[in-house]
Amino acid sequence: MSRLPIRFRVTAALALAMALVLAGSGWFLYARLDSHLATALDTALQVRADDLGALVREPGASLANERGGGLIERGESFAQLLDRSGRVLDANRPLRAAPLLRPAELHAATRGPVYADRPSVPGLDEPSRLLATPVERRGRRLVLVVGATRQNDAETLASFRDELLIAGPIALLLASFAGYLLAGLSLRQVESMRRRAAAISADTPGERLPVPGTRDELERLGSTLNEMLARLEAGLQRERDFVADAGHELRTPLALLRTELELALGHGRSAEELRGALRASMEEVDRLAQLADDLLLIARYDRGRLQLRLESLDAGELLSSVVRRFQLRAGESARTLAGEAPAGLRLRGDRLRLEQALGNLVDNALRHGRGGVSLRAAAVDGNVELHVHDEGEGFGDGLESAFERFNRAQHGGEGGGAGLGLSIVRVIAEAHGGSADAENAPEGGAHVRLLLPR
User: What DSSP element (H or E) covers 262?
Assistant: First the structure.
């Protein structure tokens, strides 16, 4: 059943439900008609018993000779008068002298009306309904029995049953056909969306599914799928941009490295010149290795696979480690580099990754900023903030895009890096469950803050 198309499954379900409804309705109507016919027959017998009761009280009246007034219809109704012992005193002609009532029924009928059913009566071999009621005649208490055949009712029920058996299947077929058409109309929009979805590929950006303006589940489904397509398209575009930018960044150091090696191999050079070429090549190799590490870090974070080795860290020791690492470089530029943290301030994090993030910030400050560079840690609202501040020109107009990948204006101008420094900082902060932001300090310079859970 599950392999059938939805249209056929919906039609089959509708046909089954309709069949149950028709069967239940037919049975109910048949039962109600049978009940109404039985009630009508009992009422007619009661009326006939009242009329014949008045007749038998008259002197010289006889049931055998009763024709006037339509009280007894030949072949369809009958009447019989019994005494208390069950002897037949009078009866219309189809009946024989045998009493119609059993002794128990006769005894009950002397006290009040009694209804009974018979499969047949003498002279009328048809199912019949009887009513026995007490009457008074010349001071004697007698029992009047009136009856009628049920053949007319049986024929009426049989005719109604035949009509139901004919009309029911026709109604079921019509309802199933209508359900098939309605299911097709309802699924037409789904088929339209399916065809459009089959035509959408990475080579057709901007394509969207047609959304019906029906304000129902189909419209919500189409809108949700279009939103999903927009997210996938944006993600694919980011991946394409990432690959293109990475390829561009890799091409420059590779070209320089190739040039240095070709010059070293193609011309006779002194040992000192060869060592210089090798040093230049090593710098480009280091740059390639750092770029590869940064790209791998970002790729792992995007896939949710960035592993952290969390431990309890002293904030002061963390800042001191970064300061010692860049102290010589800052001294060569005659710039100050200092770190400050409250005593006993601790945080939980990955030492290597946090030193990498702070190192990127200090490297940017030394590369693009001016004046002294300060590192500071503080406890704020149950979190730990790590600040890096320089005295240069700040981020300028590139503040909003400072953390974007391959953004070369991350720190107030063109730089020699790949534009991944601040991107790595944000990745590491978010991997720790924190955040990173930047601002142009009011007193001048760039100010970057890492907010980490304590």
Answer: helix 217-266
